[in-house]
Every structure is written in C-alpha cells, then in structure tokens.
Design brief:
five-stranded parallel beta sheet, alpha/beta, 12 strands, 280 residues
C-alpha cells in the first residue's frame, strides 16, 4: 500500500546548486521511489523554492512548522547504486527531464555553450574560445547564473558542446542529451576533484578537463594572498591533491579554486573537443 502523506525534511543543508540538485533533491526522489510514496510533505526554507514547487511528489511547507514526527531524508551521493550495482543517477535525470523539458530535445542542434560565471572563475579569454569553437558549430557566450532556472535548462538541453569553469552549474548536465560534450576548466593549480567526470560517465555524456594557464586573485585580502604565497613556496610545482581535498586545508582549496579570472588554452580545448567527438 502506498503512503501518500509522509512528512519529511532534508537532513543536511544544500549550500549550493550542485548539493541541492544532485544530492538533496536526488535523495528525496530516491526515497519516494524506494518507499512507493505518491507525496512527500516537505518542510523546507532553502533558496530553491521555485524548483521544489514544480516537483509533483513534493508539497512544500515552511520549515518552522515542521512537526516532531518528521522523517529525516539524507542527501544522496551522486554515485549511488542500486542492489544490482547499477547507477541510479540516470533514472533521476530522466525524471527531471520529464518535468522541466517542455519542448522535445533537438538532437541535431549544433549550439555550443560557453557558460560564464558571474562573480569568480570568469573565463577571461572567452573571445578566443568563441573563435576556436566556431568550427564545431554556433558558439554562445552566456552568463548562465543570471538566467531563470528554466532558461538555463533550455540552454543545456539544446547544446552540443558545453565549456564551463568548475562549479555547481555543471550539475545542469542532468538535463543534457546523451553524448553532449562537456569541457570543465579548473583554476590554475586546482585539481583532483572529478565529481562531474563521474556524473558525465553515468549519464552517457562526454567529459574532459583542462587546467587554466592563468588565474588572478586581485580581489583577495592581503592575508589570503599571504596564504597563497606560503603554499606556493612550499609546493613550487603543484599543491598535491591530498592537500586540496583535505578538510584541514579547506581554506587554501577555496582560495585556489575561486580565482577572479581564469584563462585557458583555447586551441587545447578545441583539440579535446575534437577527440571526444571523434570517439562518438
């Protein structure tokens, strides 16, 4: 028998779009599937109300009205697998597409999205990328964060190629059509975090990355610059990934990742895209 009125909240706060879409909402979806729930009465006060309100199996209530007998639903790992060891992300992706994709996906689209961020990791040489990528289709440079959610989804679903700096916006690959090419640009010196590579593999997408050859930190404080300098002297070649991934060194990871501007080798990006397309 289906339980139609499960009262719940999400255990753990989703502090950015990736954690919300790929983990928090993913966890709610899997709970509803695994427990045959028609409806979850969801107590929530986070920043993604407009998305929550479009999910058919969720009915939202204010968090301060949460009753004592509420079920705590944990955010799920993006890499979660079922009892047969098969990834669960693809089923979740297909569910999201049914809800948010209002028009049929154009499989013949040759749009290329150069996705810009608004406040940091801004691709300084997007003009070079634009010129390099014209041979693959029609490039568009868009600051995706400035657009409504549904407009962002539409951009991804109609893209043949997506080039973007590392960040939560890459969680939009959940809406991409199969074989879409994603090139992820890391800030200079930032490496070792490959969650979007793993997502892409599970979703039937093509992924590669490139490290920026230039990063600027001019908006950092003198203290932050001093920390960067100390680590650069200690690790002149590259800060080891075990340092960047360590909770103890969380601040240096943020400082290296969140450069104001980055530049990458546009020709190398083009070469990576060509190899991925040839492998189709």
């Amino acid at each position: 028998m289906k339980s139609t009125h499960v009262k719940c909240y999400s255990q753990g706060y989703a502090d950015n779009f990736y954690h919300f879409l790929a983990q928090q909402l993913h966890g709610l979806y899997l709970y509803s599937v695994d427990n045959s729930c028609d409806l979850l009465n969801f107590y929530y006060d986070g920043p993604y109300v407009k998305i929550i309100d479009k999910i058919p199996f969720l009915k939202r209530y204010p968090l301060d009205a949460q009753p004592e007998n509420c079920v705590a639903i944990k955010p799920i790992s993006t890499l979660a697998r079922n009892s047969k060891r098969k990834p669960r992300l693809l089923g979740y992706s297909n569910y999201l597409k049914k809800i948010f994709l209002t028009e049929p996906i154009d499989a013949s689209s040759k749009n290329i999205l150069i996705a810009q961020r608004a406040n940091n990791r801004i691709i300084k040489n997007d003009d070079e990328l634009f010129c390099e990528l014209k041979k693959f289709g029609t490039p568009h440079i868009v600051t995706t964060e400035a657009l409504p959610f549904l407009a962002q989804v539409e951009l991804i679903q109609n893209a043949k190629i997506v080039v973007a700096a590392h960040g939560a916006g890459l969680a939009h690959m959940l809406f991409a059509k199969p074989n879409t090419v994603f090139i992820e640009i890391y800030s200079k010196g930032f490496h070792g975090i490959y969650l979007y590579r793993d997502m892409a593999k599970m979703l039937g997408l093509k992924w590669d990355c490139i490290e920026a050859n230039y990063s600027s930190w001019e908006y950092y404080s003198d203290e932050d610059i001093s920390i960067l300098s100390d680590y650069s002297l200690k690790y002149p070649d590259k800060i080891p990934s075990e340092i960047l991934l360590s909770a103890k060194h969380k601040r240096i990871r943020r400082l290296i990742r969140d450069a104001r501007y980055i530049k990458c080798d546009a020709v190398e990006v083009g070469s990576k895209i060509a190899r991925l397309l040839e492998a189709s």
